């Protein structure tokens, strides 16, 4: 069964994501450890809340590079709600820069 890292940065509904992944036969692993993120079979970035605090939380946990590395590797990556918005250059709902994966 594939292990799916669910990135914990204090901005997501982790329980719901875990339950959904379990229903697909995956093994969810809630983590903010870059090594666990890198070795997972896939990665999910959930998100609930506001853009600017989310970006600050990712930076404070030093998760920007691990996320960008996973995406660049071609490993399956899913951003849910705010987790998807973070992949853009920025947001009209905030002042912080996004990850810039999507223009």
Report on the structure:
It is a single chain. With 103 residues, the protein is α/β, with parallel strands linked by helices. It contains five helices and four strands. The protein has a four-stranded parallel β-sheet.
What are the key terms here?
103 residues, alpha/beta, four-stranded parallel β-sheet, 4 strands, 39% helix
- Contiguous uncertain segments of 5+ residues: none
Radius of gyration, in angstroms, nearest whole number: 13 Å
Largest sheet, described in full?
A: 4 strands, parallel
> How much of the polypeptide forms β-strand, as a percent range?
15-25%
What's the topology here?
Elements: E1 3-7, H1 14-23, E2 27-31, H2 34-39, E3 42-45, H3 51-60, H4 64-73, E4 77-79, H5 82-85
Parallel strand pairs: 1-2, 1-3, 3-4
């Amino acid at each position: 069964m594939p292990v799916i890292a669910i990135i914990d940065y204090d901005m997501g509904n982790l329980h719901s994501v875990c339950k959904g992944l379990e229903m697909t036969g995956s093994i969810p692993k809630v983590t903010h450890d870059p090594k666990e993120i890198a070795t997972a079979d896939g990665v999910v970035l959930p998100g609930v809340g506001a853009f600017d605090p989310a970006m600050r939380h990712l930076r404070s946990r030093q998760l920007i590079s691990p996320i960008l590395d996973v995406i660049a590797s071609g490993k399956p990556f899913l951003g849910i709600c705010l987790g998807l918005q973070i992949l853009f250059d920025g947001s009209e709902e905030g002042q912080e820069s996004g990850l810039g994966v999507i223009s």
